[in-house]
Design brief:
Blueprint (H helix, E strand, L loop, with lengths): L1 E7 L2 E10 L4 H9 L7 E12 L1 H15 L3 E5 L3 H10 L1 H4 L4
Parallel strand pairs: 2-3, 3-4
Antiparallel strand pairs: 1-2
Length: 98
């Protein structure tokens, strides 16, 4: 899993590549949270994300809660596999997915 970040003022775009699962969820969380100071708009670009497990979903809930207190979070570029996971788990009702 790779996270590429681009900060523009108070906006952060984190592009995630590969898989976010039990082995990589902690790294994913650390990498995104490391740059959240002063960020009010977080975009997670999942166009290169192949899979997300329950461990990754937990990280999304944590990030969503953090960003709800200081701004907004949205997820873009979701493929069919990840979209199905969001639908089955109800995350599509919680998260802003574009």
């Amino acid at each position: 899993m790779t996270v590429n970040k681009k900060k523009n003022g108070s906006a952060l775009i984190a592009s995630v590549e590969g898989r976010v699962d039990t082995a990589t969820a902690e790294q994913f969380e650390k990498e995104v949270k490391a740059d959240l100071d002063g960020v009010t708009e977080l975009t997670l670009d999942f166009s290169q994300l192949n899979y997300i497990s329950s461990a990754g979903l937990r990280v999304l809930l944590t990030l969503h809660k953090t960003m709800a207190a200081k701004g907004s979070m949205k997820i873009t570029g979701v493929n069919e596999i990840v979209s199905d996971i969001f639908e089955v788990t109800g995350f599509s009702e919680i998260l802003t997915i574009e």
